[in-house]
Please model this.
Amino acid sequence: MAVEVKVPALGESVTEATIGEWLKKPGDPVKLDEPIASLETDKVALEVPAPQAGVMGEYRVKVGDTVEVGAVIATIEDNSAAGETTQVEEREEPQPADQKAPAPAPAPATAPAAAAEEDDHTTTLSPAVRRAVLEHGVDPSAIKGSGKDGRLTKEDVLAAAQAKKASPAPAVSAPAAAPAPAAAAPAGTGERREERVKMTRMRQTIARRLKGAQEEAALLTTFNDCDMTAVMEAREAYKDLFAKKHGIKLGFMSFFAKAACLALEDIPAANAYLEGDEIVYHDYVDISVAVSAPNGLVVPVVRNADALSFAEIEQAIAAYGQKAKDGTLTMADMQGGTFTISNGGVFGSLMSTPIINPPQSAVLGLHRIEERPVARNGEVVIRPMMYLALSYDHRLIDGREAVTALKIIKDAIEDPMRMLIDL
Model:
């Protein structure tokens, strides 16, 4: 008996999604609650679990189709029925074959199974991973995935490609292999290829929201530079004790989150947003933290950051980072948020003008730490410096308020004691 697989509830105000990929093929064995398909919504990618154990049945929709909540997308066949079919085939096949040829049958049977497994491994690659595999020319079956259920991530492919470049070619094969690249080079240099890939639903939403922010908000960015000496010394002095007590590393983000809370308390407009002709203020701080995920940039929310400790902030961010990597972020994780912190420094950015995350009115951009000469007490010294950027909606936040808010963050980072005594 077949059981229908339906689109689950997707979250508040979300009524439809797009079929991202099928994780099981018709005929594959399926366990209870095992993911069989990936759905893409405006904000997150989520997996559809199997409602019962059995065998994957037929697809009712194709990859790329838009489906509504409750729609039937596939079927799961009863496992017992599949087992009976298999037993009948095994009984009937030996009877007409009197020769001894069927004896070695198990050996060839292994090869198709392995090939099917390898093919299944390849077909379950996400579009981003598949592009990375093609670009870098690596074998996906030879890479151990670090994602959920051992699935490959883009980072896994990039790491394998880097290792492939770093590993020297064997000395014995070098003379024989040398002519091949030389012969292939002329053909490769003249080859020009194009590839059209449909934008994921999440990427379409990101594009639409960011363009909308540019068109609707009066965006402006103010900059400052920040001496990271005090924070770096504090991390170095307490990192071991912090990790031992809380089970998490002490990072920079918790310092900036607490510094931002101080600034937002003094400049409430930076923690507010416009709704029609009204200004909505908040007496709490929910910080959206930009996190890189395989399908794009996502912004899960650290709620009540103003009431959390450094350890609680670091634990929340680490948990969201892992969920983003595994593709298990939910709509609830990303709803709300009154202020955003985006750290382009982890990718090497020196300076940028971040775009606000609507309906929020401000975003803090962090960048890479770089040793630069600065003047201190009439002398030129070398200090670890970071450029800070605060982009804001000038319709709500005046320049004086924006500059003041960024200056409060800078002062708190350069003198972390301010965060302890609420200055």
The chain is about 40% helix and 25% strand. Confidence is low (pLDDT under 50) at residues 82-123, 169-185.
